[in-house]
Amino acid sequence: MRVRNAVKAVCFCMAAAMLYSALYGVFSWKDTGGAYLTNMETFYGLEEDVADVLFCGSSHCYCSVNPAILWGQHGIAGYNLGISGQDFAGTYHGIREALKTQHPRVICLEMYGSAFEGYEDKGNLYRNLLGYKPSLNYWNAVNALANGEEKQAILWKWPIIHTRYAELTEQDFRPDTISRTYMGYKPEYVYEDIGEIPLYQVTESVPIGYEEEWLRKIIELTREEGIELIFFQVPYLANEQFQKRCRYMKEIAAENGIPVLDMMEMLDELGMDTAQDFMDWGHLNEYGARKVSAYMGQYLAENYGLEDKRGTEGYGLWDENLKVWRHLVQNHDLQQITDLGSYLTNLVNLQDYTVVLIAEGEFPGEAVEGLREKLALTGAGESFLAGESVCVVKDGAVLYESPKEGCFRFMGIGESDLLLHANDGKMHIIVDRVEYDRVEYGIAIVLYDNVLGMVADAVGFPAWGEGPCVR
Fold first, then answer.
1. Segment holding 194, helix H or strand E
2. In the prediction, which pLDDT does 10 show?
3. How many Å apart are CA 434 and CA 273, to the nearest integer?
4. Is pLDDT of 123 > 90?
């Protein structure tokens, strides 16, 4: 009887653990300030001992350093572990967690962590802790970063995330391609003119308080592991007090023989444009990040003898990440085009896209002649402009072509479902149950990105060129 009860108890515990694990995967905290999953969660997806460089720090870090650029230009296998609001205590435990599976040659520590004194924003506290797997290091991190009663809630995680049932979306059950290939950075195109960045002539330094203990632990840990450490500061609208704290960090760096890359002193060298390269006073956007990332990649390649890992087995995820980033940039650029002729020109030679073109109404003769050649280059057949019709093209090859009358076609494109049908005298384009109708008379284009598994753009151009395009 006792043996039977013991077996039942073990089976119950195993079933409960499996159920908890399955449910937690769906309900788990999603980092809405990043790429849905936190940088630590996606970091666990790396194969062992592949990351040569880690970038650690706060949002200043993950908004500024794009591993895809380092990989594309130099073959440097880097990963950005930056998390919003991360102080040096959080960075220390993040590095310890990373070293369980990786042994990087270099760790680049972003300096804004010296400005923090704990976690006033609970969202940032959750971002920095809930992505960890259970372990002694997780226990230590929670005890170092959290206070009072919230420690137990964070350790168990479920008390924090169980109410997410009302927020669940399809992405909770099926993470997208971008999350799977995420290396800690994604492009942002919001911009704000932050004006001139003042560089104070600071002659005194200000101690960084509680954070100094953790900074010195980071220095000690990297030294024990034989890892090169770099301090770096990215451009932003820093006040005088923070620049004094940075001076104190530079003194610690000099004391320990640690290089410092202070990009606040390199604004001209980097070609920083304060009207275009920032999303707000503290964070770079995609354009600013390209400049910082290019500089970081060149510096690392020239000073640390890092091997070019492109084409090396086990590094396919970096190739995928580069491809994803290039598609995100390409899609954004296409979304800015408002002229039909220019748009068609940019569609030529696009790879890994499916293009749906709809002709609604009749085009004037002169308009047809001006567009005929460009449409042909995209893959659209001669019959497309002869009358109202639809054409589906993938990488220059026609998948489907039909006149409007009687059109009804269901087909798979990438990871999605496409439905084309004529009803009530109008063509309907439906992708994954979302309808994309942009013009009553003109050309409608739906651009589907087969790499990202999503509609990249949906735009309509009026037949007579009157009025703006419609998105």
1. none
2. 64
3. 39
4. no
Q: Which residues contact 289 (CB under 8 A, 6 or more apart)?
A: 63, 64, 65, 66, 185, 187
Cα dist from 168 to 24, 193, 345, whole Å: 12, 36, 40
Give the other-Cβ count within 10 Å of 89's Cβ.
Answer: 24
Residue 81: φ, ψ to 5°: -95, 10
Q: Count CB atoms within 10 A of the CB of residue 225.
A: 14
Q: What is the mean pLDDT of the chain?
A: 87
Asked whether the predicted pLDDT for residue 76 surpasses 80, the reply is yes
Question: At 402, which amino acid appears?
Answer: S
What b/e string do you get for 337-354 counting C-beta neighbours within 10 Å, with b at 16 or more? beebeebbeebeebeebb
Average pLDDT over residues 76-95: 96
What Rg, from alpha-carbon coordinates, does the chain have?
Answer: 26
Residue 36's pLDDT band, with cuts at 50, 70 and 90, is very low
Q: Which residues is 457 bridged to in the sheet? A: 447
Task: Identify the band that residue 410 occupies on the pLDDT scale cut at 50, 70 and 90.
Answer: very high
What is the distance of C-alpha 71 from the center of its chain? 15
How far is C-alpha 186 from the chain's CA centre?
A: 3
In 3D, which of 200, 29, 210 has the Cα closest to residue 128?
29
What's the confidence (pLDDT) of residue 268?
95
Q: What is the DSSP letter of 287?
A: H
The whole-number average pLDDT for the span 416-434 is: 91
pTM assigned to the model: 0.89
Total residue count of the chain as it appears in this document? 471
Start-end of H helices in 336-418: 340-347, 365-378
| Buried-state track 434-451, b at ≥16 Cβ within 10 A, e below 16 | eebbbbeebbbbbbbbbb
- 318 pLDDT higher than 50: yes
Quick one: tokens of 289? 């990040």
Per-residue pLDDT of 202-245, as tens digits, reads: 889 999 999 999 999 999 999 999 999 999 999 999 989 999 99
Cα separation, 145 vs 6, in Å, equals 39
Q: How many CA atoms lie within 13 A of 425 on its CB side?
A: 3
Tokens of 192: 């704000």
Cβ contacts of residue 151 below 8 Å, gap of 6+?
142, 143
